[in-house]
Amino acid sequence: MVDTTPHLLAEDRPDFDRALDEALRDARLTEALRAPGPHLNAAQLRTKAASLADTIAAPAEPEYQRYTALRDAGPPAPLGLTDRLRSEEGAGLLPVLTVLTPILAGSGGLVLLLIGYAVRGAAPELPLAHALVTAGLVSLAVGGAALLVGIVGLLLTALRDGASGTTGPDGDLAEARRLWQVALRERALLPWLLANLYTDPAPLPAPRANTRPGPPGYSSPGFTSPGTEGVTEPDGRTPRPAEFTGPGYSSPDFTGPDEV
């Protein structure tokens, strides 16, 4: 029999664990955990769900397949020199003029002003000096206006790119990952946790007695209090001193030398 259960890749298990933690903090589940009656606790649910990750994640399989497909596709290949030139030509002359106009107008205006003031200093009566100064001032004004237009264009471009920051390969991948995590939490984890909340936990093995057996054939000796022959009465209640009798001695017989 072919196993058709989808399997989470190893690099996606942290996302599963993160979604599991979020589901365990969900208000619907925490309220059910606070309800009276026998049921699993959060730690038991987490342990059980972690061991069945592939089965639990099956309802979010469409989103997971789209996410992994985008991730496996990888980023697009960088453009070659010919492609970059074609893209620059296709962009039009307006961006080029926006950049070049302030530079050319500003530098030309400065040159005209320098020449005009030099001519005015040498021959103030010549009308050429006044014309050169006027042309230089006009060029500087044109360059300043072009610079202002370029700055406004850059700001508008930045705002447009920020508003569409989720588009493109990287944005599509991030969005696919987010959709999978939402489906994993809402369609897979939460229904499973609520359905398995009242499942009996696996029985724990009985604790072993903390005893150490003695060596084989060994038993503690029994002690009994002495009886009438010891230091107590026969009933074992009233102690009394043991009775001792001294050994019998008799004086040795001595005989005189006459009796030998």
Automatic annotation (TrEMBL):
This is Transmembrane protein. Residues 205-260 are annotated as: Disordered. The chain crosses the membrane at residues 93-119, 131-156. Keywords: Membrane, Transmembrane, Transmembrane helix. It comes from the Bacteria.
